[in-house]
Write a structure and sequence with these properties.
Blueprint: E1 3-4, E2 9-10, H1 16-19, H2 29-36, H3 44-47, H4 64-77, E3 82-83, E4 89-96, E5 99-109, H5 110-114, E6 118-119, H6 126-139, E7 141-142, E8 146-150, H7 154-164, E9 170-173, E10 180-186, H8 189-199, E11 205-209, H9 211-227, E12 239-246, E13 252-253, E14 255-259, H10 267-274, E15 278-284, E16 295-300, E17 303-309, H11 324-334, E18 348-352, H12 357-365, E19 371-374, H13 380-388, E20 399-400, E21 411-412
Parallel strand pairs: 6-11, 8-12
Antiparallel strand pairs: 1-5, 2-3, 4-5, 4-10, 5-12, 7-21, 8-11, 9-10, 13-20, 14-18, 14-19, 15-17, 16-17, 16-19
Length: 414
């Protein structure tokens, strides 16, 4: 892999908590408006600039993109974002429930994405790519990082341990979720050279979170290459902002489903249909968590059920077919409920595991949804194996926590 250090644009030490925000794609516009209320330094003013207009303004309204640039310029004029004087690497650590993961902040090479050495496990949608491309183009910067995994290495672990033994540049706990965020600057030239050298020995990296941001950043970089008649290859637009974590530190959470109706079936008929392919066991009113691969949790009419796929309903030699997102999509959502396209069907919604199974119960008990389905989470090994095989996972298969905070570091394309 080819990476390089870069002159990060970031907040002064005392403003990091105020500037930083959740990623643009994990909350709605009105949620961002509420979170940013009374805080002109919130990065939401740049990454969700529709909040600077009247409520109800679409995040895709053409006027919001130039508004993002206006805010980016304002942040820099006011000193809320400042550019480092030299090219550095950085370390970004996140702590959730007593567990810390350490990511190296780098400028990743566009060609590694275009030639599929930076590997994806999800499909992207062109409309979402274009939205993020507009944002990158207008700001001429990667305002938000993407989240990569790399095969862990002891030599990188040792470098990270050495740097993080020192006092961090930023160190705060989010009021929203209680997660800790720490940040170090790597400005020693020998350490920088060693990190670059080690990454050159890594054959591939994997997009954990941020497939649309990755695609948009790489495509804009490639656009700039094609538009520059004097292109050399070392221009800053040939690289984009990434935080790279060792694969053995990452936690993949469950990504669950809630469905609005039973496709015309009664509850009894639905449970009977399930019993053709699953061993169905009622667990009563107490919350039931899936216990292993091919065991599912179902919530219906105030009761939790254990569903265990019967032998012969999946193929363990098929890296895609063995996934519980595939088993449940084929045998429950499609076969029984008639939901064939998870990306477009309005009868289904998805709930990240960070919200807990209580959120599934709440949405069913409220009458908004009829039934909820919880899945056993996929593993990093499954994700890497699928990406290495050139396959794509089914939609809504992975949920990584904690999410990267935006605003701690920005990469300018000039």
């Amino acid at each position: 892999m080819k990476i390089k250090p870069f002159r990060g644009i970031r907040p002064p030490k005392d403003l990091a908590k105020q500037v930083s925000s959740r990623p643009y794609d994990v909350l709605e516009s009105e949620e961002a408006r509420v979170e940013a209320e009374g805080n002109p330094m919130s990065l939401y003013h740049i990454i969700k600039p529709e909040i600077n207009f009247e409520p109800g303004t679409s995040e895709f309204d053409p006027k919001v993109y130039p508004a993002a640039l206006e805010q980016f310029k304002l942040f820099r004029q006011n000193g809320w974002l400042q550019q480092d004087g030299k090219e550095n690497y950085y370390i970004y650590a996140q702590t959730m429930e007593g567990r810390t993961q350490y990511g190296l902040v780098v400028a990743a090479w566009v060609e590694d994405y275009m030639e599929q050495r930076i590997k994806k496990h999800e499909l992207t949608r062109k409309d979402k790519e274009e939205d993020r491309m507009k944002h990158v183009r207008v700001n001429n910067a990667n305002i938000e990082p993407v989240f990569f995994a790399y095969p862990h290495r002891d030599d990188l672990d040792a470098i990270i341990a050495s740097v993080t033994a020192k006092t961090p540049e930023y160190d705060f706990v989010s009021d929203l979720d209680g997660f800790g965020h720490s940040f170090w600057v790597i400005d020693d030239e020998n350490t920088i050279a060693r990190i670059t050298e080690i990454f050159s020995q890594i054959p591939a990296m994997y997009i954990a979170d941020g497939h649309h941001r990755s695609a948009a950043a790489a495509l804009v970089g490639n656009e700039k290459k094609l538009q520059n008649p004097n292109h050399r290859g070392d221009e800053e637009y040939n690289f984009f902002l990434a935080v790279c974590f060792p694969d053995n530190q990452l936690r993949v959470m469950d990504y669950n489903r809630v469905i609005k109706d039973l496709n015309g079936l009664s509850e009894e008929q639905f449970l009977a249909a399930l019993s053709e392919d699953f061993d169905v066991e009622c667990k009563g009113a107490d919350t039931y968590q899936p216990q292993a691969l091919h065991n599912f949790s179902l919530y219906l009419d105030g009761q939790w059920y254990s569903l265990t796929a019967k032998e012969g309903r999946y193929d363990n030699s098929d890296p895609i077919g063995v996934l519980d997102v595939s088993v449940s999509s084929r045998l429950i959502l499609d076969k029984i409920l008639g939901i064939k396209d998870l990306r477009s069907d309005k009868r289904i919604d998805f709930v990240g595991g960070i919200r807990g199974l209580g959120e599934l119960k709440r949405r069913v008990d409220s009458g908004e949804m009829k039934v909820a389905l919880a899945l056993y989470p996929v593993t990093m090994k499954q994700i890497i194996d699928i990406a290495d095989s050139g396959n794509i996972m089914p939609p809504k298969a992975t949920w990584f926590e904690p999410k990267l905070r935006s605003g701690l570091i920005i990469h300018e394309l000039v």
